[in-house]
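ok so i was messing around last nite and threw this chain in just to see what happens. nothing serious, just curious
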Amino acid sequence: RVCAQYERGAEALRRERCGDLRVNGKVKDTGLEWGFDVRGSSIYARAVTYLEGVNFKSVVGAYTELDIQGQEPFQQSAKLMKRRRSSFFGFGASSSERTSSVGRRRSSVLASSAPGFNRDLVWAEELSSECPADTLWHLRTENQKSRSKGDNILRVTVVDALDEPIGAVLIFVKTPEHSELARLPPPTEGHDRSVIDVVIGLTPLRDGEGRLTGSFKMERVLTSQPPAAILTLVGWTPAALVRSHVTKALKTEAEDVVCFMRESRVLDRVVAASGRAALYAALEKRCHQQEVPVS
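result:
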């Protein structure tokens, strides 16, 4: 399954450019570009973003730990709902410490974590993880503008393709096959379930001497089969309005993502201590091993 997924994903990333799609746009001086089209019963989209001043572990973790992508992870993550913030961050201050400078510093850390970038996330739960690179998630979302509610199950798979011609780590976020989905929780009443297929390519950028720059190119390809009402609405929306809305949304998301990767204490803790911590550390090490020695 994973080999076939890699071949299909690598081909999807190579196949088209954003400018080849019916509606497309760019954000000046940022490198952000996107393309969008409706094909039959599916929405097809591509986006290219450049992430600067972040570490590779945080980049990968931000797109694989789906339950902490929301604005309030301790209220939206089924796992974190069960945890006290202080114990999650490794703090166990006594009552006397809470009034000391140490206690105040700990309180500052607890309060300073940047929110996530998925503004539609309401609730998320990790259902199973066959291995650290392959995880099944259950999510509920509510779009802030249309108020449409989604209840989706997604499999997140990470593939190290740094040594392949594509030179990237690929993350696949995909609705399971129907046979598997039939054995999993049905959608909540009043919620729609879409068919989602996202390929994310994360490429470390290097300088002329082969050293890592601390920046990454992120390419995303999305194919989605949303409910018919949403598809009809999108199809009838004027291209100029779509262009304006998507450009604004992607620019805001890019800013939110970088802030989350740089400043989220929750992301830092999960990347360092979760069941996938070894995976993130290994990918970052692999990234550095590829640096070209300076002679």
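not much to say yet. The CA atoms of residues 61 and 201 lie 13 Å apart.
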